[in-house]
Amino acid sequence: MRSPPVGISALTDIAANLFALMLLVLILLLGVRSGSPTSATSTPSPVDVENDLVSVVHTPLGSEDLFDLLFERRLESDSIRIDLLVQGVVVTSHGQTERLGLADNLAQHLARLVASRNVPIGLYVFSPRFYRDVLAALEASGATWREMSVPQAFRSSLVASDQGWSDDFMGLISTPSDRVQFRRGLARLLQSGSGEASARTFPASGGQPQPSSAGERIARWSRTALNATVVLGGLIFIIWVEFRRRRSLSTDTV
């Protein structure tokens, strides 16, 4: 029988140890990458001192006042609802919705809407970007309003979302309800946390919860399969090297 090359046992031991070390480093790198926050890789947006750092002193609203303000945000309400988003200002009145941005004259549009009806005005702040302009327009019109910073549980978790509100909250305010039913719905939303990140309590479409897209599911499955393949391939290689080493040792013994 042909004898194995000299030093084959030592080479197989070194190869197995090196591969095990490389596999450990790969697993650690994958863990660090998956655990790192996505915001760390994104470039922070510049701070506009004039628009982003506006300080206004207001008397805090009580719990009942906050509830009334959210109750007036329903689609069937007669009040004027103003949402301050990062992308612009959304004004809902007369059953119609208008989106205003940097290119629009906020003071002129808001003065026209406020002067047309003597109804409650609610200001819902998602971002302070347009806060100063809207406040100046309302003060110039002589209007009275109530405002609140929208809790995180009612906000959309999608970065690219342009509606501000979560789908669950939009489903709640689009469903006819009295104060008791609306209070129960708010409590369930607050308990479940962020709308899209939790179970769908109030689907906006009134149907089944909206699943994640096929592309997202395929991407998650591909990453899981790739990680499993790397680990399984490494184990198979180590077993194969160990088998060759034991076979060479038995051949030497014979």
Task: Kindly list the characteristics that best describe this protein.
five-stranded mixed sheet, alpha/beta, single chain, 48% helix, 5 strands
Write the layout of secondary structure elements.
Elements: H1 8-35, H2 49-52, H3 63-71, E1 80-84, E2 89-93, E3 96-100, H4 106-116, E4 121-125, H5 131-140, E5 146-149, H6 167-173, H7 179-192, H8 214-253
Parallel strand pairs: 1-4, 4-5
Antiparallel strand pairs: 1-2, 2-3
Structure description:
There is one protein chain. The protein has 254 residues and is of the alpha/beta class. It has eight helices and five strands; from the N terminus they run H-H-H-E-E-E-H-E-H-E-H-H-H. It is elongated, with a radius of gyration of 30 Å. The model is unreliable at 194-211 (pLDDT under 50).
Instruction: Report how far apart the termini are.
Output: 9 Å
Structural class: alpha/beta
User: What is the number of E strands?
Assistant: 5
Radius of gyration: 30 Å
Question: Strand fraction band?
Answer: 5-15%
Mean pLDDT over all positions: 74
Described by strand count, sense and barrel closure, the largest sheet is:
5 strands, mixed
Count of runs of 4 or more consecutive helical residues:
8
Spans where pLDDT lies below 50 across 5 or more residues: 194-211
H/E element string? HHHEEEHEHEHHH
Cross-sheet strand order for the largest sheet: 3-2-1-4-5
How much helix is in the residues? 40-55%
Shape annotation: elongated
What does this entry show, briefly?
The chain has helices spanning 8-35, 49-52, 63-71, 106-116, 131-140, 167-173, 179-192, 214-253; strands at 80-84, 89-93, 96-100, 121-125, 146-149. With 254 residues, the protein is of the alpha/beta class.
